[in-house]
Amino acid sequence: MLTLSNIDAFYGNVQVLRGMAMEVQRGEILCLLGRNGAGKTTTLKTIMGLVQARTGSITLDGDDIATLPAHEIPKRGIGYVPQGRRLFAEMTVAENLEIGLMTRGKGRKVRERMLDLFPVLRDRLKQVSGTLSGGEQQMLAMARALCLEPSVLLLDEPTEGLQPSMIALIRDVVTELRGGDTAIILVEQRVDAVLSIADRVLFIENGTPREAVDADELRKEPALVQRYVGIA
Q: pLDDT digit string (tens) for 134-187?
């Protein structure tokens, strides 16, 4: 499905990713875990073309996308919900959704499906997105990404700063997506939330992939979490 092989990436002259390698399959949730600064967010940005890979390959269903400009990546079916949501704050909810729909030429049926997933947005369509609550903004960011009908969805800290009811809603939506053909790469610091939904966990240290573990195994043996993240 989506495969990264031997990716090196830099910010200026500072190397952040060193030989990054991973793969995720359809209907699978892969979680990236590591300490702050380990390279998790940079991995997502490199997939999206926001950070250019200097070496290695990124393939989607066998096609190398590593050299594509950033605006082409969503058109290939990769949705991205960045940390901090990054909505068009001066635009309405409806306008933000429309931007997602336009990316791959989706229409009203897809929008209705998103509003069914996040019903509160149906009552906020004319509201300026910058005035939404934090939880509502996160729902809108996810709905906008899902308007692409992505084959791969990248989620960076989707539950950050949210109240428990919103966290539960987002977890339910992610779990529902796993039941389809969507591959999901999740960056999340809340280990309890990760282990409740992930299929596999990839530990990243200093921009390097260290160990990939089935989530079931990690639930039984949490020592790896302590080793790579520093919490039990």
A: 889 999 999 999 999 999 999 999 888 788 888 888 888 888 887 788 999 999
Nearest one of 221, 201, 207, 203 to 11, comparing CA atoms: 207
Check residues 144 and 83 and name the one with the higher pLDDT.
144
Number of folded domains that form the chain: 1
A 10 A CB-CB count for 71 gives 10
pLDDT tens-digit map of 207-224: 999 999 998 888 887 777
In whole angstroms, give the CA distance from residue 158 to residue 162.
9
Instruction: Enter the pTM of the model.
Output: 0.93
Tell me if residue 13 falls in helix, strand or coil.
coil
- Please report whether residue 185 resides in a domain: no
DSSP state of 41: H
**Radius of gyration, CA atoms only, the chain:** 17
Mean of the per-residue pLDDT values for the chain?
A: 91
Residue where the block lists tokens 């240290």: 205
DSSP state of 71: G
| pLDDT the model gives residue 172 | 87
Q: Which CATH number does the domain housing residue 32 bear?
A: 3.40.50.300
Tell me how far apart the terminal alpha carbons of the chain are, to the nearest angstrom.
Answer: 32
**Domain span at 69:** 2-180+190-228
CA distance 193 to 196: 5
* Cβ atoms of residues 173 and 153 within 8 Å: no
